[in-house]
Amino acid sequence: MPPIDQNDRYDPVAGRPTLILGGHDFHAITDIVARPLEGKTPFAWWLVFLPSLALLGLLGVAVSWLFWEGIGVWGLNVPVGWAWDITNFVFWVGIGHAGTLISAILFLFRQKWRTSINRSAEAMTIFAVMCALIFPGIHVGRVWVAYFMFPIPNQMGMWPNFRSPLLWDVFAVSIYGTVSALFWYVGLIPDLATMRDRAKTTLRQRVYGFFALGWRGSNRHWQHYEVAYLTLAGLATPLVLSVHSIVSMDFAVSQIPGWHTTIFPPYFVAGAIFSGFAMVITLMVICRSAFGLKDIITLRHFDYMAKIILVTGTMVGYAYGMEFFIAWYSGNPYEMFTFINRATGPYAWAYWTMISCNVISPQVFWFKKARTSIPILFVMSIFVNIGMWFERFVIIVTSLHRDFLPSSWSYFRPTVWDVSCLLGSFGLFFTMFCLFVRFLPMVATAEVKTVLPQADPHAHPPPERTPLGELLTNPGGH
Amino acid sequence: MATFGALGEFKSPADLYAACERVRDAGYTRWDAHSPFPVHGLDGAMGMRRSRLPWIILVFALGGAATGFALQTWVHKVAYPLIISGKPYFAWPAYIPITFELGVLGGSVAAVLGMLGLNQLPRHHHPLFEAARFARFSDDAFFISIESADPRFDASATPRLLSGVGATHVELVEDGS
Lengths: 478, 177
Prior knowledge:
The structure holds 2 protein chains of 2 kinds. By secondary structure, chain A is mainly α. Chain A has helices at about 25-40, 45-70, 85-110, 120-140, 165-200, 200-210, 220-250, 265-290, 300-330, 335-345, 350-360, 370, 375-400, 415-440, 445-450, 470. Chain A has one domain (about 25-150, about 160-455): Formate dehydrogenase/DMSO reductase fold, CATH 1.20.1630.10. Chain A has 16 helices and no strands. Chain A is globular. In chain B, helix 3 packs antiparallel against helix 4 (about 90-120). Chain B has helices spanning about 15-25, 40-45, 55-80, 90-120, 155-165; strands at about 5-10, 30-35, 140-145, 170-175. Chain B is built from 5 helices and 4 strands. The relative contact order of chain B is 0.29. Chain B has a domain at about 55-120. At the A-B interface, helix 1, helix 5, helix 7, helix 15 and helix 16 of A face helix 1, strand 2, helix 2, helix 3 and helix 4 of B.
């Protein structure tokens, strides 16, 4: 099919500028997306992959040492029984949420621009949930009894306590990981078929073919497929909102001042989307220039994502303010102390790092120049992720380090093993992401094709019709 | 070797859409359209009925939720009754999160497996894959296949119909099995 001849900036059907630039036809889109998977491994890929793999090795060492020696290798002490472990857990779960927001919530809202970024954002979700799940698994100390967390019939006749948010968390995060993986795989099936049909070697054809399940683009299949996809989006939407709400209840249901507050569920969800979009921007800035996707992931996509960052960042800022207001309004001296201590006590440096990164810096996104400048976007996305990591650290550690009993007051300092676990989780994340961009189509080509103007069956006037009767002069067996 | 059916190739979604309407009107029933992406409105142009999948999903979602609620009630009322932080054995509000999560899990698994089941996938071998041009369905080509099992199929009239409704290339596909 020839490229559409209209000016690219104008979509004749929707009456808006086209989402995909460059006037590509369907075949060109397939080529752009498939080429990075088919060529020689670029040198720059190794430059990212090998350090990531080294960090993943560090995670292996850190976790092995932790299992050998116990959680005393971390800097935990008596009032601060949770620190970087749970900070990392909440940080990674939060990162994942933007992937589901893009793939499910924006799908329900018919935001067509999501098609350029949903595949890689969903991959990000799955890898982030993998990183997240490590921490609650390893922080229990006696990992060999971690199966106590699951309702598995056992010879002790013992069952988990379903009335605890910590158990809700086990279910929420593991089901979230499972549903995200299902959603991602369903989206991949048509693109795996594309890779199968383009394969030049038998191995590629067999492997992609195996996972493509014999997909043949049948419209009778597309019908059920679209229903399944829509329903998964409909199920994933309340799921993602429930996951971070439940994560926040790990804190909110306790009675620690600084944790025991009803604003946590919406505040955590907004923060999760905020940090996740920042991670999507970090990854997409790199991928679009490394893999020649500039026509597919355009400045307009970044503009939209920056707006979401501005909105959610401001919501998070509102929550920070509201926490202080409620602490004062409650009249509770412990609550007031906790918040004044948070902003002025020994962890004030962490608190103000969080405020600068999360509330002040995203305000540059009021300006379109900033929303469409790649260097600013990249730097801001890193800032936001630093800020959001600190947000969880501030919530967890500042609330714990001042116990009700002043004699147990303490200060948490990380050890080299805390640092290794955090860096190691980044190693796992980037190793997985490198493998993803090398072996799987990082843009959902079947979905991107649907947003091209020529994909609309009514984009062109219908062809001249021969009357049906003339075509049926020999109607066969009757 | 028997003939599997006729395969016609079209060059755009608009052509495919118009052709589907006419193959539908000609009274064929065992036929299909193949496209790299779902073409908007093609279900109607092919005269297809709504998918039954939502009902399957509903049953499994409710089943998952019911299982979750029953499991928690049984554990806390029957199998392992313990009072923890002063909550009653049947603390049903505390059971809601896991009930909801298991409902989502049941619905999601049913959506994927139900979709594959209704589509009779995985099916790694299919006569259409024998047609060399068919491989481009996953890139930029659009096809209509009409099976020889259709009562109206005729080895000369059916291909003629496909060319008449705008196919740029028509061939008969052998059933290799």
